[in-house]
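Give me structure tokens for this 303-residue protein.
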Amino acid sequence: MKRRLDEALNRLNEVVLGKPQVLRLAMSGLLARGHLLVEDVPGVGKTTLALAFARVLGLDFQRIQFTADLLPADIVGVSVYESATSSFRFHAGPIFAQLILADEVNRASPKTQSALLEAMEESQVTVEGQTRPLPSPFFVIATQNPTTQVGVFPLPESQLDRFLLRLSMGYPPADAERALLVERDRRDLLASMPAALPPEGLQQAQAEVSAIRTSPALIDYLLALITYTREHPGLRQGLSPRAGLGLKRAAQAWAYLDDRSGVLPEDVQAVFAAVVGHRLLPASGQGVAVPTADDILQAVPIP
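Here you go.
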């Protein structure tokens, strides 16, 4: 399985150039059964990232373009009356796919954003009183425009907390951007690329990730990091239990990609900023500096 995951990462790096750390974090998030939030300016490869993961992992893919007039029914589906059978028939929305690209998710209204809450937390949706399971595996990769741009709605804390990782693409390094300009178009390359790992293989890898050992000392370290965020006067609220579980799973996935059977503190540190960065909410009117992820890692000693 490790060989196939390495092959998948190699293929992803052929499509998304110059971003090996971002791709490894994204792979760790999917192996940990988490959802990804990718925030950056337009045109840096956010959509290509999602397309590449769907292709390389052989996942059924749907793209939802979030706009101000998008309705929840446009996402989850709706029942339509059919005169031929004198009954209502449910027409599934695009949420019924294994990998969802929620493109520019913060351009939609909070009401429409809330249509993702149940799906992301429980892998199901409730439509007209009936609960319908979503495909397995199920992942959401959402892209978000910077909040300084026109026509965006900030994501509420409850929505942000459902994303395991928040990533930023950034501009590619000079050599990677040169390759983008002179080599084959990345979308054309992606169209001809076979899957490196089928969905069944991904589910097997996820099960193996959950079995990666976490020692009592490692759990103490996680708890110390979580407690520090809850007690710091510069933060409005600390990490939630969901965030703590996500941090553990992401660290297990990082260790798994290194082909190790146990989690080290270095694994926690590698994923910490991506897991907690969007969850650190500044306290208002305290006059205390808001700690960054690096500040927290430096303040909390390793047991």
